[in-house]
């Protein structure tokens, strides 16, 4: 079935669409294993699925999509797998004209210092190329870890304290938020994790303080726009109290 035919079937229910959705794109390895394929084939299928899901998000009015592509802990994997993932990400960033055509703004969040020069160049290029678009903002979390992000932000604030520009008692929650890679963006309303794992694995820990969570047993490459619509429908039934009554 063509993507547009698939979409037409998966209308989102009436009601508030989440402004910001985070997705932990997990289960690529298991998807490949089930098919007797190398893990890299799972990562390729997962990267392709992100295009479908991102386009769908844009079409239903989601403003921000943060996709967890590679964590600060994923370097523990065999070099061969890490290299395959980095190659795919490079390819993904190079396919930018497809995304630009969909009016998407592409940003990368995470510690870029450990990424190759080639990937860094591509990240700058994709940002330059898409920054004036007015549709969905897609954050690709690449070498991203929430704890690492918070340490990085705390160092920035500590440096201001050392220079005498800021008193420790004047540090606010807003300043901490502004010191993160997601500065200026709203917190995620909904965080989705496919693949059956029930954890956050160091994803948006500060920003997700009041996110609604939705889990599915489907591996990421098989995760459909229909399931996303289901997650949004579930989100619309939740009562978000933020500590109030
Ligand atoms: C998610 O899929 C992709 C990355 C973490 C880079 P996995 O590779 O973790 O897939 P599983 O969890 O082994 O199935
Ligand atoms: C989380 O998946 C990271 C990404 C999807 C990029 P992992 O597969 O690394 O998480 P754990 O190890 O199961 O917690
Ligand atoms: Mg995994």
Give a structural overview.
- This protein is α/β, with parallel strands linked by helices and 245 residues long.
- It has two domains: 18-144 and 186-192 and 217-236, Undecaprenyl pyrophosphate synthetase (3-Layer(aba) Sandwich), CATH 3.40.1180.10; 146-185, no CATH class.
- 44% of the residues lie in helices and 14% in strands.
- It contains nine helices and six strands.
- The protein has helices at 3-9, 28-34, 39-60, 79-94, 96-101, 117-130, 146-162, 173-178, 225-236; strands spanning 20-24, 64-71, 105-109, 137-144, 190-193, 212-215.
- A six-stranded parallel sheet has the order 3-4-2-1-5-6, sandwiched between helices.
- α6 links the parallel β3 (105-109) and β4 (137-144).
- α2 packs across α3.
- The longest helix has 22 residues, at 39-60.
- The chain binds 3-methylbut-3-enyl trihydrogen diphosphate (IPE) (2 copies) and magnesium ion (MG).
- Residues 25-30, 70, 74, 85, 195 line the site of one 3-methylbut-3-enyl trihydrogen diphosphate (IPE).
Name the structural class: alpha/beta
CATH superfamily of the largest domain: Decaprenyl diphosphate synthase-like
Which value, in Å, is the CA radius of gyration?
Answer: 18 Å
Largest sheet: 6 strands, parallel
Q: Please give the number of β-strands.
A: 6
Outline the low-pLDDT stretches. Answer: 1-8
CATH class of the largest domain: Alpha Beta
- Widest β-sheet, arrangement of strands: 3-4-2-1-5-6
Mean pLDDT: 94
Q: What is the name of the CATH topology of the largest domain?
A: Undecaprenyl pyrophosphate synthetase
Beta fraction of the residues?
5-15%
User: Ends: how far apart?
Assistant: 46 Å
What binds here, in terms of ligands, is: 3-methylbut-3-enyl trihydrogen diphosphate, magnesium ion
């Amino acid at each position: 079935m063509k993507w547009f035919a698939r979409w037409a079937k998966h209308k989102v229910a009436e009601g508030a669409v989440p402004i910001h959705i985070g997705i932990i794109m997990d289960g690529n390895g298991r998807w490949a294993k089930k098919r007797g394929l190398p893990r890299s084939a799972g990562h390729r299928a997962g990267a392709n699925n992100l295009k479908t899901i991102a386009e769908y998000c844009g079409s239903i009015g989601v403003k921000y999509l943060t996709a967890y592509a590679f964590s600060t802990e994923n370097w523990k994997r065999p070099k061969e797998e890490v290299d395959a993932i980095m190659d795919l990400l490079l390819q993904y960033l190079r396919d930018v004209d497809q995304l630009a055509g969909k009016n998407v703004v592409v940003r990368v969040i995470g510690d870029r210092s450990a990424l190759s020069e080639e990937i860094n160049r591509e990240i700058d290029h994709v940002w330059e190329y898409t920054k004036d678009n007015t549709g969905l903002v897609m954050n690709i979390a690449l070498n991203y870890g929430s704890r690492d992000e918070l340490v990085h932000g705390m160092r920035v604030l500590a440096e201001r304290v050392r220079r005498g520009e800021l008193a420790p008692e004047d540090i606010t929650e807003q300043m901490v938020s502004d010191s993160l890679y997601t500065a200026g963006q709203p917190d995620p309303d909904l965080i989705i994790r496919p693949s059956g794992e029930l954890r956050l694995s160091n994803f948006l820990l500060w920003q997700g303080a009041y996110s609604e969570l939705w889990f599915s047993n489907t591996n990421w490459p098989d995760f459909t726009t229909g399931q996303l619509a289901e997650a949004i429908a579930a989100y619309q039934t939740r009562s978000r109290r933020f500590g109030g009554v």
